[in-house]
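Reopening this one. Same input as before:
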Amino acid sequence: MFERDHDKALIRERLLLQRLRLPVDLRAELSSRASERLLQLGIIQEASTIAFYAAVGSEADPTPAVEACLAAGKRVVFPRCCVAERVLEFAPATLDELVPGAHRTREPPALVPAVSRSEIDCVVVPGVAFDADLRRLGRGGGFYDATLAALSPRVTRIGFAFDSQIVPFVPSEGHDVPVDVLVTDARVLHAATAARTASH
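Same output, byte for byte:
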């Protein structure tokens, strides 16, 4: 169905529809499984400051991982849209403290100061589709790609999704930024593994 499909809009439309068809209780169960895998990552266990996201609509929901990290005393930050600059900044908050933001998102209140990007150890990123080479297809706004490109190379970029969102091929342009790790309800893919797979 998605084999070598180079039309981003078509892939996005199909994957969003497929995700919406997942029953709510199944989405919650798969999100919980993915969160368990996420929490097992060494980078998550060692990190002091982790950037998460608040799920929108039918997105894979990292809430169980967020709550576990907060309970472990880690600093959790969430993205906030800087619309004029088309980039994201990150500020500390709990899920209950988030307020409505741009593009139907929930984000930290405007009065909460943003943290320096240099303080972030890893960032958990949503997506509409991913492939085995860890290319990511977002919702089309470009905010995450611009933000991931601006982060230090030492920051681990972690895609978080349902396994059904992995497709054979995600078209990539110069401004698109792949993730370093992809976590789903069924597996974890690392950049090194993806590179080895691509070479065979």
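So the earlier flakiness isn't reproducible anymore. For the record, Confidence is low (pLDDT under 50) at residues 1-5, 194-200.
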